[in-house]
Request: fold
Amino acid sequence: MSRTAASRAGGAGPPTDGPRDRQAILAATLDALGEHGYARMTVEGVATRAGVHKATLYRWWASKGSLVGWALGAGLSTGPVADTGSTRDDLVTWLRGTIDNYTSTPAESALPALLSDLASEPGTLEGFRRSFLDARRANCAATVTRGIERGDIPADVDVGLVMDVLAGTVFYRQLVSGEPMDAALAERLVDLVLTGQIPRVA
Amino acid sequence: MSRTAASRAGGAGPPTDGPRDRQAILAATLDALGEHGYARMTVEGVATRAGVHKATLYRWWASKGSLVGWALGAGLSTGPVADTGSTRDDLVTWLRGTIDNYTSTPAESALPALLSDLASEPGTLEGFRRSFLDARRANCAATVTRGIERGDIPADVDVGLVMDVLAGTVFYRQLVSGEPMDAALAERLVDLVLTGQIPRVA
Amino acid sequence: MSRTAASRAGGAGPPTDGPRDRQAILAATLDALGEHGYARMTVEGVATRAGVHKATLYRWWASKGSLVGWALGAGLSTGPVADTGSTRDDLVTWLRGTIDNYTSTPAESALPALLSDLASEPGTLEGFRRSFLDARRANCAATVTRGIERGDIPADVDVGLVMDVLAGTVFYRQLVSGEPMDAALAERLVDLVLTGQIPRVA
Amino acid sequence: MSRTAASRAGGAGPPTDGPRDRQAILAATLDALGEHGYARMTVEGVATRAGVHKATLYRWWASKGSLVGWALGAGLSTGPVADTGSTRDDLVTWLRGTIDNYTSTPAESALPALLSDLASEPGTLEGFRRSFLDARRANCAATVTRGIERGDIPADVDVGLVMDVLAGTVFYRQLVSGEPMDAALAERLVDLVLTGQIPRVA
DNA sequence: ATTTAAACGAGACGGTACGTCGCGTCTTTGT
DNA sequence: ACAAAGACGCGACGTACCGTCTCGTTTAAAT
Reply:
């Protein structure tokens, strides 16, 4: 009924007006995530580390899941990709950023447990997607669009699926198959979608 | 105390000799998974449903995670792919099976949380990969090998990466991006890796 | 900071000069007390009901306990007992008023919890006794004194104990034993202390 | 649905089969009560002191209130009054026990807050009355009955009211009026109800 | 009329304790 | 030897309410 409640209604998304110590909380959350992983980190631990009381966190986030969701969305690099003139290079740059996101300590194995937790708060899951993924996907889409304009990519390309191929392969490798993430991975995946070159063994 | 402990030492792997009510436990575990998801299902609930006592489960599995890991490995379809003579068709068939696995209720969002849980019991994670993934990946690899023999696929293809592209895209779409899983997805992905056709919008 | 602090120093007693909305606060406090009981009523609820901010309450009262203590003292009837010429009748009248006080919704079960709360703020408990009880006891004592002058009561009667017998029986019945408070109770108790008639069953 | 739930249904009453460390819990509860009072004692503190986990307490008692209610009922002396042949002496003995109960550290100011807390769990309040009061009142009633048989007390005496007068006066004095509890109090009250002697100042 | 000091509204916050949940362990008792 | 029954330790979760604090804004008395 107050503004607080209204700002929380969105779920995982960043509260429109947050607590006073936003920055400290963000840092503390990502730290805890990196140190202990999602399941073993505790809300109280985050509070202590941030110099804030647990109740304050629950005033602004509905659950542990939405706090972490917000932190990941707010804390991971998300800058747009510079236009170097080469569609391939730009996509590789973007994919490397994505790889960094998925292999950096905080997010690494946080995402799966997080997604699982958020599955029980349905609105929150969608909110997390919007705040975490959309910015990243928009950056990629922009790069692809430039590629289309240059004629490097057909105009009717299914951008969503391309992004799922690029990010999904990385994500799956990191979490499920556990195969190593070699340095050339980004190039090989971009070449696959761009020029149809089936990946070969190094 | 001897064989019990020994059989559990392996972690997530299937116990060398199991409890009496294996089938009921398997069914109960998958049911619970499908109904509540990994995080919200409870070991006690599984026990009750299986008409077994919780302690019995812990006698044979080291943790909730290893129980679920075993159930997924034992319960999801895993049959080898028939050789139809068409590499493309066989790969599509395999991928459709994978999609079914990832979109069927039990496994749907169980895998991420499971992987996260298993991450804290180090050996167990690897054990799960071996028991759950290897069979599926072997099937795919066999199909690819036949494709190589037929000359449809270059001999030095990076099979591991191909599998990550196929399965990873599906996995990511289901769990992270949340985009719909249309019927033609399997063909489009196989065509991408096989003939380099960039996916276009329908 | 000067007068405010000074006026609060007294504890449970009525502030020398109060907030603007005294009446609304009094009503809201007694209402809340009657509806939820002492333990379950909340200061914030009282504030809202009174159209006042919580901080205002804490500006004038040191604690929930002292607020309620003040409200009970200010809100319950406390008029002196008229002199009808009959000592018995006057005492019965007084005792009936006491019964009303203890059985009316607000005070009913508020007193015990209140006393318990006030026990931790030592001075406040005594302050509450002075402001709440003394007026009532003075009324009774006056009636007894008239009885002594009339020769109805021996001059060396222990007035304090008589009052404890009258009020205590009622209080205990209401709160502890839970036995019903029949209509003739006042007469029977007065007759007991006045003429030594042991109470008989109706 | 299990026996545990069934045994708790009664509310404040003693569980039919209790936790393993009943004695330690009883002692710890009464200790905590005596040291800190009802409001300031904590369930977790009781658990620690008893060498037990908080969850164990909540497994057997529905709330802090019912735990304390049980402890008071189980921990305070409740023995029957010996028959000395003198009705007056026996009643005095009984009343002295009651005074002890109400002035001993644990119960002293625990009862009011307890009663207030229990007011919100209605069944529990009644359960507490049954387990705490009934034994004591039965003892008194037995003594009165002997007095009737001896002809010391009229047969149609209202025993319930007599007990309320005796215990209520003591209770009220202790908690509300705060007047001192002198040594002769028991005799004076018994004489009041027995022989109609109005209490005089010492 | 204007200044000025106190009271007030708004609401975030620290703190304490509550009561809950589910995992995994252990003991007891059959079978 | 295994299994049923179920109490228990443990750790964390999320909630509630108290009482404090800061910051603007209103009110009302004093100049």
Remarks:
- Residues 42-44, 54-55, 58, 63-64 of chain A lie near DNA strand F (CB under 10 Å from a C1').
